[in-house]
Amino acid sequence: MRRPTRASWFLSLVFAACSSGGISEDGGVDASFVDAWAGDARGDAAALDALTWREGAPCPMARFESLGVVVEDRLWVMGGFTSADLRVTPRIDIYDVATDSWERGPDLRGAETHFGTFFYNGEVWFVGGFSGWPARVMSDVWRYRYADDTWSQGPALPQSGAGASVALVGTTLHHAGGLNDASDADVDEHFVLDLVNPTAWRSLASLDNPRNHLAGVASGSRMWAIGGRHIWDEADGQLSDVHAYDSDGDAWITGPSLPSGRSEIAASSFATEDGIFVIGGSTAGVQPTADVLFLANGASLWRALTPLPEPRKGAVAARIGNQIVVTTGSPTSTDPSSTTYIGCCL
Questions:
Q1: How many structural domains comprise the chain?
Q2: Is 83 a member of any domain?
Q3: Is 52 buried (19+), middle (13-18) or exposed (0-12) by CB count in 10 A?
Q4: In what order do the strands lie in the sheet with 74-78?
Q5: What is the C-alpha separation between 98 and 96, in angstroms, rounded?
Q6: If 274 and its partner were Cys, which of 32, 43, 128, 211 is the partner (CB 3.0–4.6 Å)?
Q7: Residue 253 and residue 35 in contact, taking contact as beta carbons nearer than 8 Å
């Protein structure tokens, strides 16, 4: 979104092979991506080529830049902006793709956006983010146990942060990049928390090319930081960078660049056993895109799949079963949408 009124270590082996359906030049991809990426699958090409979209039941509240998490095969859509003047909601709505229906969930602890979230051991976690708008940048970490509707506080981030790359790899939570506590600079700090004994964060290798409004995805044994932008420059600051954290060397490795720069993809990027999806986003000139991109395990090029019926930035997307659910977001950059699209079939 627009603000109102206004690589430390890597190997650079360039793959010579270009896969069918690839849409970007490979840019300095580290050779270890091929060997260390978990799984042999390259994606079912026929199923991906045949991906189709249909409308599902709309979200009860139109919004954009919400966050999402899958809990027991249902998609929680949480917080976000509900108007062009950036009003923020604490509301959670829960979508059941099996019945194509929504129900009201518990409210967040406040009106929030740009936090990291994931589901682990019966709890939904909330990490950092913005509170309200104009925003207070948070260091808070909260856990919500939905089975008994209770909240508990986790160890706060070492510093406040929002719009960061957040992902859970095994039992290790990663938080990298994002905006600083004043929301006026990108940070490169990379913190991790062991969820087996979640008492204190520790620092690891800094993120290459610090940025914000990027995606954080766990794929195989690595945490991926995908796309993003510099500061608040949504018009010209979009980035195509892709990095993955290698825990063996405590270093970030350069991955296959996106075909073009994009941000606002934190909640619309996810991994499957076959690879990584990035859906929609904000591109140069503050233009939402309908792109559906896929990077197969071990591949050196992103592949363009059937696009969404309409552009979206700041949408929420997830795989549930053999379908992809994409909901909310903005087709114009500031006008919220309630539309839900269902992609079939993986």
A1: 1
A2: yes
A3: exposed
A4: 67-71, 74-78, 92-96, 101-104
A5: 5
A6: 43
A7: no
Q: Compute the distance between CA of residue 39 and CA of residue 42 in angstroms, rounded to an integer.
A: 9
**Is 231 a member of any domain?**
yes
The answer to whether residues 330 and 86 touch, using CB atoms and an 8 Å cutoff, is no
Pairing verdict, β 287-288 and 67-71: unpaired
In terms of residue numbers, what domain contains 191? 32-344
Please state the pTM of the whole predicted model.
0.89
| Tens-digit pLDDT string for the chain (346 aa) | 434 333 332 323 322 233 334 444 444 555 544 444 434 344 577 889 899 999 999 999 999 999 999 999 999 999 999 999 999 999 999 999 999 999 999 999 999 999 999 999 999 999 999 999 999 999 999 999 989 999 999 999 999 999 999 999 999 999 999 999 999 999 999 999 999 999 999 999 999 999 999 999 999 899 999 999 999 999 999 999 999 999 999 999 999 999 999 999 999 999 999 999 999 999 999 999 999 999 999 999 999 999 999 999 999 999 999 999 999 999 999 999 999 999 999 9
The C-alpha atoms of residue 77 and residue 327 are separated, in whole angstroms, by: 8
Count CB-CB contacts under 10 A for residue 103: 12
Domain-embedded: residue 172: yes
List the structure tokens of 122.
């019966």
Tell me, yes or no, whether 92 lies in a domain: yes
